[in-house]
Amino acid sequence: xxxxxxxxxxxxxxxxxxxxxxxxxxxxxxxxxxxxxxxxxxxxxxxxxxxxxxxxxxxxxxxxxxxxxxxxxxxxxxxxxxxxxxxxxxxxxxxxxxxxxxxxxxxxxxxxxxxxxxxxxxxxxxxxxxxxxxxxxxxxxxxxxxxxxxxxxxxxxxxxxxxxxxxxxxxxxxxxxxxxxxxxxxxxxxxxxxxxxxxxxxxxxxxxxxxxxxxxxxxxxxxxxxxxxxxxxxxxxxxxxxxxxxxxxxxxxxxxxxxxxxxxxxxxxxxxxxxxxxxxxxxxxxxxxxxxxxxxxxxxxxxxxxxxxxxxxxxxxxxxxxxxxxxxxxxxxxxxxxxxxxxxxxxxxxxxxxxxxxxxxxxxxxxxxxxxxxxxxxxxxxxxxxxxxxxxxxxxxxxxxxxxxxxxxxxxxxxxxxxxxxxxxxxxxxx
RNA sequence: UCCUCGGUAGCUCAACUGGCAGAGCAGCCGGCUGUUAACCGGCGGGUUGUAGGUUCGAGUCCUGCCCGAGGAGCCA
Length: 431
Known about the structure:
alpha+beta, RNA-binding, 8-stranded mixed beta sheet, 5-stranded mixed barrel, elongated, 13 helices, BirA Bifunctional Protein, domain 2, CATH 2.40.50.140
């Protein structure tokens, strides 16, 4: 057998005979001339089989091979403008590894219910393959940027003790006879690990048992949560815009082919460079009112509001200084104006909504203690968290970036269910 | 949890005011040496989500339930 190569490297082998191991993506049967589209996980290449040039058994195999059969092909690499991708393989050998019968997903239209039921096969399709490749690039860019900017990866637990009085949005599990819950955020633990490492991040799955039925929600999703000691709200925003810009520009540079498969308008992504616009919650409220929304100060933004604000700018926009009352108990108050807090959300451009939530955390023991009381949280569960304000408390900030929402935005797709291989949604846990 | 829409062949859909269950694609057979979701000819393919009800007659109308989609709410 000749040299086994991957399709993504095919240009380097022009004129040579190579072997490709993969699956039949699609075919065109022209009688004595067969076009086989073969994919190997790295790309798709057209193989041409001509009856007059081939031994009868090889040509018969080319004629009989079915969609998604696994196969090993050998042939000479040739540049040809008529071939998708610019290169094709002049077939000389074809071994069918397994002949597939009745592959359910045809190259025609399908409904979302059918496709989700066949998710384990759907991920082979070009669009889904491109999205998941981009996701992998996003994940790599996240780790590369943080690792090269002084952040230490310290992962936080997935199984957590009961810490809130309201457990309706938590998935409960049995922990040796005691209830335990799947994590909703690693942030509180991150606030502990910055005391040891200065700058940290955790990166893993997060679980929400909310009965959300929207294009922006999954019950299991991935979140990266950086946390930084001695960084204030302004410093947090500077880190966020550098971080997000790096992710977007890395995908543009390394996954251009996949973005093209998705027909993404990349000119919009090219604009995603620092600085991002910054507006206060007050200004956002005014903007919404000017746009005709019936919105009053103190309300939280719903999906249409986030979309409207995001569409107003040509790059992601920071909204900061939200009302203290609508944010989490650990947000630092603005010392000059306690009714607002030092929180910041990043809303993606093109109306994709919130991709980051974060801000400066409460550093003061007294304030945190008061907040725990105001929110009716069980004090003893938070003793360790209060300890962080007893022993060397510092101003600190952090944020959480949702991987699926970020991938959906970069890919320009409308529903985040396609940005993870096996989405977990309300009423959907198969396959 | 609420609102709206939907469930008919393997898939995507059609079926008028209640009157014979239909097409394209996929599959199978045949044809075609440059196809790009190829094309041309032929063949097979149905418990109309489910349980009741109204009616001479229900895919179609009514009620319950199941499932899905879109949106809202929820969303340390």
